[in-house]
Amino acid sequence: MIKLRDIDRYIDKKLQRNFILKGIDLDIEEGDFASIMGPSGAGKSTLLNIIGFLDDADEGEYYFFDEPVHNLSEKQKSEYHKSYIGFVFQAYHLIDELTVYENIEMPLLYRKVKGAQRKSMVADILDRFSMVAKKDLFPNQLSGGQQQLVGVARALIGSPKLILADEPTGNLHSDQSREIMEIFQRLNEEDGVTIIQVTHSDEMASYGKRIINLQDGAITKNNPCEK
Amino acid sequence: MLKNYIKIALRNLKKHKGYSFINISGLSIGIGLCLLILIFVKHQLSYDGFHENADRIVRVELITEDRKSAVTPSMIAPTINSVTSDIERWIRLYDPTRYNPVIISIENKKFQEESFLYADSSFFDIFSFQLIAGNSKTALINPRSIVLTESKAIQLFGSLDVIGKTINARIFSQAIDFNITGVVQNTPSNSHFSFDYLASLNTRSNWSQLSDTELQSANFFTYLLLNPKSSKEMLQARVNEFLDTNLPEERDFTLSFTPLKDIYLQSDSDSDVAVMGNIQQVYGFSLLAFLILIIGIINYINLATARSARRGAEVGIRKALGAVKSQLVKQFYGESIILTLISIAIAVILVEVCKDAFFNLMGQNIEFNILTDLNVMYLLIGITLVTTLFAGSYPALLLSSYNPVQVLKGLLNKKSSGDFLRKGLVAFQFTISTFLIIGTAVIYMQTDFVLNKSLGFDKEEVIVLPTNDRDLNPKRELLKSEILRQPGVINATYMSNIPGKVFGGYQSEHMPGTQRILINAGAADRDLINTLNIDLISGNGFPSNPNYSYEQGYVYLLNETLVSAYGWTPKEAIGKKFNVLGNREGEIVGVIKDFNFASLKEQVEPLALFMNKNMHNHLLVKVNPSNIQGTLNALENVWEEIAPHRPFEFLFMDQQLDALYKSEIETRNLLSLFSGLAIFIACLGLVGLSSFLIEKRAKEIGIRKVLGASVASIVALLSSDFLKLVGIGFVIGSPLAWYVMNEWLQNFAYQINIGVAVFIYTALLALIATLMTVSWQSVKAALTNPVDSLKSE
Question: DSSP state, B509?
Fold first, then answer.
């Protein structure tokens, strides 16, 4: 599904080139659940952003379902992005001015889904996350865990093939974190959704199938998770 | 999607109420002003366009050596008609009220009227004033025919059914019974001349000045309807050719032709039919209204970009969820459209509420319904587009171009996005404000100066009574002596013309060895000098003998300017022979100090005053200031007794003189309004901007306080940024204002000096306004407990 070959990402300073990622080779198969781990500044988020089409690599090749992403136009990238990928953020990143319902609905609007269908899709997912009663509340009226549930629901609404989660539990306490991870696990096992998450926590990583260790912009370990 | 945009825009407006208020109030004031000014401009440009033949009508103007006059001799039109085939119809108008009001009597009621015209019978064929009753072909054919306007008919008779009725008009002492032959719609406010009464010109067929063949004085407004195949240029060529071949070499005039639609805004003729507009003023006001709108738009741009850090996060999320740039651009444009539409709705309400007061301030009477005018719709669509484009583009393009990765990490705060632009725009706002404040101050000082300058005579507490009336003539001396007996009356004098109104342009006699001099001349009586307190420099003045009459030989008072034009000293002039118009021989009996008998826009012109009791058209009564109302009552009683056939109408001379500066006073009033609003909107913008920028620097303030900074030093730090910008605005705006206002002052022969004080006061005003708006925000920030601001990180 994802094939990275010799990916570099760097920032040019006056005299030197600072590499954030250097020579990354990575394959992720459909149905995988990978956790990217590593110290701060190792390039975890950057890697995730490149996979998620939010950032571009400076060098190297990136194949998404065998499509060479490095050769795609912005518009094509945006199409892939919209139809295959869902994002979950550490800081939830809900839009404060929109209700729970409207936040979840938003990706569908960008995909130009028809009104009636949109309604039923949002209703489905609200039901699945038991949030029907909260659909008209605004993000600041929810707890952090609830907000992240909305964030996950929003990522899932378009039935993506791939979910990218940047420290999804970083701002949550352990009960809430477990709840989110269990949802991820179910999605992965029952619906076959591929998940890549960035995390600092071994416990959260243990929900996945594979751990990728990153240090100073390079992959140091890439092993199946020991259960 | 659209619903989503609208929803989020409205929620944003609601959530950030202060921000919305600043934007909407600035924009709606700007848009409202633009609307009002555009309505005004449209009205100014629409003058005389309602005539079906507007494009084919020209007015004839008489150009002599030193004047261009809107009035021409009566024979001009018939003569042109007989020598060319370029014109289809012609018409002459004569305005008797420019010398004295007309008295209309119906039964026992009397009305003093100022809007009365004589017209040739072709009037309704040339001009498109619609008759409500009567026949437009025949209404003005017979002598003693008169057409009333709708509102006059209602006022006089209470109905429009007035055809065949008779009204009596007393014009130049002569009472004439007119037969009403028509009722015409009220003259539109965008007609360059207006009238309440229109009488047939051939009523005056015995008048020597009204001749189709002989050259007489210039008294008539002449309009020509051109042949459809001809043009103004062809007519001009033909007339020039005719004048060159048929008139002797000493011809000292030419004729020019002004298209009807250009008369109102471009006429520069003397003795015009009404006060004309000024195209410069129209351009100036349009520019100013647009500048105010710009100030409002700048607020929007500044606040939107200042908030970009906050909105940036939303951009990041939307991009991460699949939005492409074009969708975000649309969204932010959509927001500014919504904001603009709300502002427009408020602006329209503002315009509806304020339009009468506003046009009043401009001295305009514009009938206008904003909701039913189709042009306003186009205008509003135009304003929406312009405002959206100007106000929305920068935020829309800036915000939508953010890289989602960076904004989601909150990297934007570190970069000063749009900082330079923002500063530049604030400085620009204050450049405009400075310019307007200085402009207003200078106009205030100058109008104050012209209204209060000593004119060389007493204009205060002088009451003017019109006395040009045949039945009153024999009783004039009686009237004056009765009036002088009233307590509170200090003195009185008759004059043919009063200061501020036209003195005739007479030619003086050819003096041996000097060129002919164009002078102003008029009659007065022996009490002139004492009544108006004019300085007599040499000679004895008018003879005090009550039995003196002009038949014994004219006596002249000359002003200094005239005397020195002849190269005489005041002493030499006394006893010299003098003559005005060649038929008034006499001698100079006094030289008076120059006084400003006309507008202060002009230097004092040569003036000769003589005595002729037949020309006692006005009685000027100098009264005691202590009980003016009582004195007026006494005057009215005297008047009722001696001249019961005329209503008691009077005016104060100072008001008459102040009216000379009507346009300047209007400009002043409007400019005060504009500069007040400009400052207000700019300061609102500062409030918004400073609160955002201070919020952004909360952490810096916290750190400084922890390190021991005092409240005062933090307030100074935060305020100084803005003061710098206001300072830059002042530095750019004040020389600009100085230059422009100096140009404006050139309109006046007598002008103030723009002193340094204006600039100092303006700088102080800007300083205080800025400090007041910025400092409370700074103080609030400086007083915050640093723990709070540092914790939030």
Answer: P
> Residue with structure tokens 């004080």?
B757
Whether B23 and B685 have beta carbons less than 8 Å apart is answered as: no
Beta strands B174-184 and B109-113: pairing type? Answer: unpaired
Which has the closest alpha carbon to B724: B770, B764, B681? B770
Taking the whole predicted model, whether its pTM rises above 0.90 is answered as no
List of domains in chain A: 31-45+82-224 (3.40.50.300)
Nearest CA in chain A to B322: A82
**Which residues are CB-neighbours of B429 under 8 A, at least 6 positions away?**
B295, B298, B678, B681, B682, B685, B729
Quote the Cα angle for B220-B221-B225, to 5°. Answer: 130
Per CB-CB distance under 8 Å, the chain A contacts of B316 are 93
Among candidates B4, B316, B405 on the partner chain, residue whose Cβ is nearest the Cβ of A109: B4
Q: Which residues, in sequence order, are bridge partners of residue A27? A: A3
Contact B322 A54 (CB under 8 A): no
- Are B485 and B615 within 8 A, CB to CB? no
Rounded to 10 deg, the angle between the B698-706 and B711-745 helix axes is 130
Q: What is the pLDDT of residues B493-535, one digit of tens each?
A: 999 888 877 666 666 655 555 566 778 888 899 898 889 989 9
Q: Give first-to-last CA distance, chain B, whole Å.
A: 34
Q: Which of B314, B322, B403 is facing A111, going by the closest CB pair?
A: B322
Does B331 touch chain A if contact means CB atoms closer than 8 Å? no
Do B323 and A110 lie within an 8 Å CB cutoff? yes
What ipTM score was computed for the predicted complex, to two decimals? Answer: 0.79
Chain A CB contacts of B12 under 8 Å are 97
* CA–CA separation, B399 and B420 (whole Å): 16
Interface of A with B in 195-224 (CB under 8 A): none
Q: B118 CB contacts (<8 Å, ≥6 apart)? A: B93, B94, B95, B96, B198, B199, B200, B201, B203, B204
Query: Which residues, numbered 62 to 81 in chain A, qualify as contacts with chain B under a Cβ-Cβ cut-off of 8 Å?
Result: 74-75, 78, 81
Is it the case that residue B415 has pLDDT exceeding 60? no
Q: Which residue of B has its CA nearest to A82?
A: B322
Count residue pairs from A and B with Cβ separation < 8 A.
61
Q: Given the DSSP bridges, would you call strands A194-198 and A162-166 parallel, antiparallel or unpaired?
A: parallel
Characterize the bridge pairing of strands B166-171 and B174-184. antiparallel
CA distances from B94 to A72, B82, B621 (A): 83, 21, 30
Please write the tens of the pLDDT for every residue from B90-140.
999 999 887 778 889 888 788 888 899 999 999 999 999 999 999 988 999
Smallest CA–CA distance from B407 into chain A, residue: A93
Residues of A in contact with B7 (CB under 8 A): 97-98, 102
- Give the residue among B155, B163, B161 at the shortest CA–CA distance from B186: B155
Residue A221 Cα, gap to closest chain B Cα (Å): 26
Q: Which range, of A7-21, A169-183, B263-277, B386-400, averages the lowest pLDDT?
A: B263-277
Q: Are B73 and B219 within 8 A, CB to CB?
A: yes
Helix (H, G, I), strand (E, B) or coil at B5: helix
